[in-house]
Every structure is written in C-alpha cells, then in structure tokens.
Amino acid sequence: MSNTEAHPAERVCANEPPPPGAAPAGTPPLEMLPPREVPLGGPRAMGVRRVLPQRERSLVGAWCFLDSYGPEDVAAGGMRVARHPHTGLATVSWLFEGRIDHLDSAGNWATVRPGEVHLMNAGAGITHQEFSTADTGVLHGVQLWYAFPDRARFSEPSLASHRPEPVLGPGYAALVFAGTLLGASSPIRTHLPLTGADLRLEPGARLDARGSRRAAPAGIDRPVMADQPPWPIGHVRPTVVDRPTAVH
C-alpha cells in the first residue's frame, strides 16, 4: 500500500470541541467511512469499493484492508488478479454470489464459493493469484485483510476454509466465519481475537450481540461493513468493543 501523492498536504492533528449534537462523553465513537472506487489489478480491471485503508484511518482494530465488489455482471471479464505477494497478514475471502479460483505458492488450489470462507495466512511470505471461474456470470463479495501480531508474523503460510452453519433468530440470520458470535464459533485459526460474520437482518429487526463474542482487549475497534441499505454499500461503521453494542 503506497502513497502515490508526490506532495501530500501537511495536516495538524489537535483536539477540537465536539460538534453540536455530538454523542455524550464516554459514548463509543461512530464513524462513517465512505469507500473509494479502485480498479482491481489494473486500470481496465473489475472495480471494487475500498473502505480501508484511508488517509483518516488506516486500521480498524487489526483489520487493515476492506474491499467489497458487485453484484456485477462479469461474463465479459470478471476478476483477474495476477500473482502478487503478501507477508505478515491474512486475507479473508467471502462471496455472496459467483465463484473464484485461488492458487498460491504454498501449493494450495481452491475454489471460493458463496457461504464458504477462505482464509490465507501469508505468514513469512506467499504469492497468490485469483480469477473468477468461467461459469461465473455475476460476482459479489468482499475481501478483508487483517494484520498479524508479531508472534505470528513469520508463521508458515497456509490456506484454510470453512462453511459455517447458519445461526437463526427473530428477524436475523448469521454465518460466523471467524471467531465467536451468537453462540457459534469458527474453527479457523486467526492468531488474535477477532470476529467475522455475515449478518442479514429483516427490516425493523434488532440484534443484540452483547456477551456473545470472544473477548477482545478494551479499546480495540470492530467494523460493521454494510452491503445493503440503510447504510450505503461498502461503508464501515466502527465501534469500540469494550462496551456492549446492539446492531439494528
């Protein structure tokens, strides 16, 4: 991730009084981070909506890269990401529609399918490539990265997959693909406490996840990445996990 600005503007950070109507002191911070359109793999490649990193915020907890894409008709092109390297992080691929073939330098080949998470541990270093399959007409999904702690930064590269069972409740359905939430746990090893889940809420539904997720250190943020209204597609709503939070 490089800053391509030749002469970036200097910005001075300082404490400022809260704007009118701001939440009372002690309330978990709420930010809306608008995505930017980025071509994936070149100027004529498929576009994605990139929420992280941003100039204002490069991380949400350990999450350092949040992309969403589609639903997009990709019959004429699709995802064509040539081989490239990673180190010291994990990539999390989650699809809603379509299929993607994954090939990496650790000898792993896999097809990413809707409802099945694929987590690539880059560890000490790995290269990989991703292509939407020939039979994919519409592609819709997200790819999320998170940074490893020092103890795992030089671990052995690997690829893990898991198809979670749905957790159903009044007005909601959840697929927990990383960590623990709503009584469901993913067997995928993440090397640090974090949670990843596909949450689908009916209009007017209320989901209270207090006490249902794996404990995380106080002050660590977590994002909510909205793929459907009421939040604009691709926006992230980070909150602080040292306080219970209900998702509406």
Automatic annotation (TrEMBL):
Protein name (database record): Pirin family protein
Chain intervals for the UniProt region annotation (Disordered): 1-38, 208-248
PANTHER family: PIRIN, PIRIN-RELATED
InterPro entries the record matches: Pirin, Pirin_N_dom, RmlC-like_jellyroll, RmlC_Cupin_sf
Domain Pirin N-terminal: 48-145
Entry's family note: Belongs to the pirin family.
Species for this entry: Rothia santali
